[in-house]
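User: I'm putting together a teaching handout on how multi-component assemblies are represented. Below are the sequence lines for each component of a complex, exactly as they appear in our records. Could you produce the 3D structure of the whole assembly as structure tokens, so the students can see both representations side by side? Please keep the chain order the same as the input.
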Amino acid sequence: MSAESLILFFIVGAFLVGIALLFSSYIPPTSTNPQKAETYECGIPTEGLSWLQFNVGYYLFAIIFLVFDVETVFIFPWAKVMKEAGMRGFVEIVIFFFILGIGLLYAWKKGALKWE
Amino acid sequence: MGSGFIIYKFILASLILIISLVVAMYSTLIERKMAGFFQDRFGPDRAGPWGIFQPLADGIKLFFKEEFMPNTADKFLYILGPSLTMLIALLTSAAIPWGGDMVINGKVYPLQVADINIGILYIFAIVSIGVYGIMIGGWASNNKFALLGAIRASSQMISYELAMSLAIIAVVMMTGSLSLKDIVDSQKGINWNVWYQPAAFIIFLVCAFAECNRSPFDLPECETELVGGYHTEYSSMKLGFYLFSEYINMFISSAVMATLFFGGYHFPFEDSLGLSPNALAAVGFLVLFIKITFLGFIFMWVRWTLPRFRYDQLMRLGWKALIPLAIVNIIITGVVILIKQG
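Assistant: Of course. Below is the structure of the complete assembly, with chains in the same order as your input.
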């Protein structure tokens, strides 16, 4: 039941977005010239493409995020059955958190979480 | 599953989508009015009494503005970016219970599009796709400012997503369910989660600011250094999509917070009032909206009060304060639950 509802919701939402897109690409006036279609860079002609290298720090954070996000997904099932799993489940998850914490601490000490 | 079911779901879906669009439109007016109040000026007051037609005028202006893209942009991705952001912002509301069950002619009609048993995970999944919309749009415009804004946005959003989901885990532990409806029903009366989980609520609130790219975390679009941020090259309705989705996200995250921490559509003494189920659902819907308005007010209040963070401060807050705090909160919650169980 809920899957069908979600698909229906998606269709209605996509319809709304599509209508707005279609409307705005056909109704308003259009006129273009080479200067207008230039990339904006404070009035100065832009140098080369903008798809260039960027700070590796962003990449580092993305990698750490990936590790931690997957581990969060592991914690959700435990949180659901937490009351039934009782003491044993809790001790196990604390061990899991301990390993997670060591990972975070390692990244912290290595300076991976420091933005520069 | 008959045609009646499809029609009912269709009406409900359209209603929810239209309500979120209208709320997003009018929160722009409220935001500008509040900015005026905080800065001791009037705010928009020309279009109609109290500027009431201002959002309509803005919407019409965005619709009829000329649309052009830079000739170096990646055409397909340039259109995909804002559309995806808008669609994702709209889809989040599917799992939120907007009210109790309506009963018409002996049939039960829940005021929720889909009562998914993994409601919270669904919302997280959808929200994390939202990063792609900004990233694609910023990258495809082939503009240095837009690229920087997009990278900043994605880095910030993934960092705060972690703390957000860790904060939610404490709530899930208390309720023992991932369904938003179950979580709401466990907070009947004034038994709200925010009394038991204040730390989780604060973490979630801060992360919600960051996820919506709202001030003080609006580095992806900070005017003083990045012109317009990831939407520098956008115009017309595509720009409108980006601006609109920010307000829709604000509305939806207020709704999620009201649902998770403030009892959703429940209000004190609802059983002793002797209302019929339909009246109760209607009042519950209004109560939920009052809660959402209050949380939305906090969003705007913070925006016009606090200055913007620096990027290293933002990362430090996310990784070195919120994530460890959320983990400690989970462990303390676990210990307390186990002690209570005996």
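A couple of points students might notice: The mean pLDDT of chain B is 84. The first strand of chain B starts at residue 101 and ends at 104.
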